[in-house]
């Protein structure tokens, strides 16, 4: 019996799909049996990021409406035998699936897989409700921007209202140099506001853009710092204790002193 | 002991409620339907005497709102985008970063107290205030906001020592 984890954020563009693809691929690298579910019906991306776009025949709407069997819609990854994708439909919209269908679908998937990772659409409307309906755990992705943190807070409130307790936080696209200069929110500030457990911090990394465009998740790239951070997250999800990466974003002695005398922020 | 200075720092009043259109002078600056739509309209006098209190033991997050005719006590933070609206007083045992409206039915005696008081906006009765622009004031102690001399002021809490707690 596997676990169903939804990756959500509220705000768009913070890296939900990238996080989903990398956590999923990371878990597959660890030898787990994983399925990724794209619930962003009408704006599907996960298939592109995974490099599996050209293999789609059936999608999540076909499964929900009984046009095909679940097995027919699952696409096996080209790199890992135990990694699958259930793609979203592109020609429908969020109302094409309802929450009960999602609950049933997740129940079916977790019979087969150790991890069911759900990529949630941006927003808090029907698509969000569908994505969280069948989930047991939640990962909230945010970036060190006030607007993203605000939306993350909103989403955490909604998750709690939906009885999805103890969501975990991934802070994406951190630029340690900017944090150090005080130009970017630091991790402690964000944790203080959101008051949930930290699952991982992912540094901003240009190689992510290359890897998502190529359809090769960054965890497969040994030279990618972001890939390494995502791999750590995957290992933490699998139950391993992994120390947090030192991004050099922590306060140096000098900035601490400056703070003390009221010079820094 | 030196004489107490009542104001520690002043919030800059943004605007006073405009009662000319509402046709309901002396009470809340907002139309009643925004507030307790399902409830019967409350008499400000009885609201002032309303000692009922609700205790919220969690973080109040963006998009969540708590409306209560009596007092509201939050054990936790109130984040930006959240709102508390009380007929009576509001006490936040945590960091108040969202919007708080005490004495919403017109009680000018109502106060807002918080361990860390940095609200997006603070309203007491029909006074609406916000922090001055550009001032990143970060309090390091509990504070209380109340109406004094026709304006909302924020002062240290307790003002001088514990003996003031009963005053």
Describe this structure as you would to a colleague.
The complex is a heterodimer of chains A (265) and B (167). Chain A has a single domain (3-260), classed as Rossmann fold (3-Layer(aba) Sandwich), CATH 3.40.50.300. Chain A contains twelve helices and eight strands. By secondary structure, chain A is an alpha/beta fold. In chain A, strands 3-4-2-5-1-6-7-8 form an eight-stranded mixed beta sheet, with helices on both faces. The N and C termini of chain A lie far apart (48 Å). With 167 residues, chain B is mainly beta. Chain B has one domain: 3 Solenoid (Pectate Lyase C-like). Chain B has one helix and 13 strands. Chain B has one helix at residues 44-48, and strands at residues 9-10, 12-16, 53-56, 65-68, 71-74, 83-86, 90-96, 99-102, 112-117, 121-124, 127-130, 143-148, 151-156. In chain B, a hairpin with a 2-residue loop joins strand 10 (121-124) and strand 11. The A-B interface holds A 150-151, 153-154, 156-158, 160, 192-193, 195, 265 and B 58-59, 61-64, 76-77, 79-81, 95, 97, 136.
């Amino acid at each position: 019996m596997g676990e169903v984890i939804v990756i959500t954020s509220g705000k768009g563009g913070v890296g939900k799909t990238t996080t989903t693809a990398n956590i999923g691929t990371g878990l597959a690298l660890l030898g787990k049996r994983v399925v990724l579910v794209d619930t962003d019906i009408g704006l599907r991306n996960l298939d592109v990021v995974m490099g599996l776009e050209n293999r789609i025949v059936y999608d999540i709407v076909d499964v929900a409406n009984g046009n095909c069997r679940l097995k027919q819609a699952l696409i096996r990854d080209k790199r890992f035998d135990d990694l699958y994708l259930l793609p979203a439909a592109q020609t429908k919209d969020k109302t094409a699936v309802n929450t009960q269908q999602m609950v049933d679908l997740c129940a079916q998937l977790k019979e087969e897989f150790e991890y069911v990772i759900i990529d949630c659409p941006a927003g808090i409307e029907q698509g969000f409700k569908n994505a969280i309906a069948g989930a047991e755990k939640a990962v909230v992705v945010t970036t060190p921007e006030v607007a993203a943190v605000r939306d993350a807070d909103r989403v955490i409130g909604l998750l709690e209202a939906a009885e999805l307790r103890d969501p975990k936080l991934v802070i994406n696209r951190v630029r340690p140099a900017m944090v150090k200069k005080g130009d970017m929110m630091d991790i402690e500030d964000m944790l203080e506001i959101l008051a949930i457990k930290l699952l991982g911090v992912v540094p901003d990394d240009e190689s992510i853009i290359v890897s998502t465009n190529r359809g090769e998740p960054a965890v497969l790239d040994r030279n990618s710092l972001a890939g390494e951070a995502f791999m750590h997250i995957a290992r933490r999800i699998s139950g391993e204790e992994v120390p947090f990466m030192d991004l050099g974003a922590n306060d140096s002695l000098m900035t601490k002193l400056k703070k003390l005398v009221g010079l820094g922020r | 002991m030196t004489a107490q200075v009542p104001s520690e720092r002043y919030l800059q009043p943004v605007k006073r409620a405009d009662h000319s259109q509402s046709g309901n002078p002396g009470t809340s600056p907002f139309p009643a339907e925004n507030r307790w739509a399902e409830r019967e309209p409350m008499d400000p006098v009885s609201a002032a005497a309303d000692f009922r209190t609700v205790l919220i033991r969690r973080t109040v997050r963006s998009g969540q709102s708590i409306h209560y005719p009596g007092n509201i006590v939050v054990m936790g933070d109130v984040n930006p985008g959240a709102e508390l609206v009380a007929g009576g007083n509001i006490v936040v045992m945590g960091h108040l970063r969202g919007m708080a409206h005490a004495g919403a039915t017109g009680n000018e005696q109502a106060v807002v107290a918080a361990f860390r008081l940095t609200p997006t906006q603070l309203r007491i009765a029909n006074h609406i205030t916000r922090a001055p622009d550009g001032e990143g004031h970060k309090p390091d102690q509990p504070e209380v906001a109340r109406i004094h001399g026709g304006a909302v002021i924020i002062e240290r809490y307790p003002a001088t020592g514990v003996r003031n707690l009963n005053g």
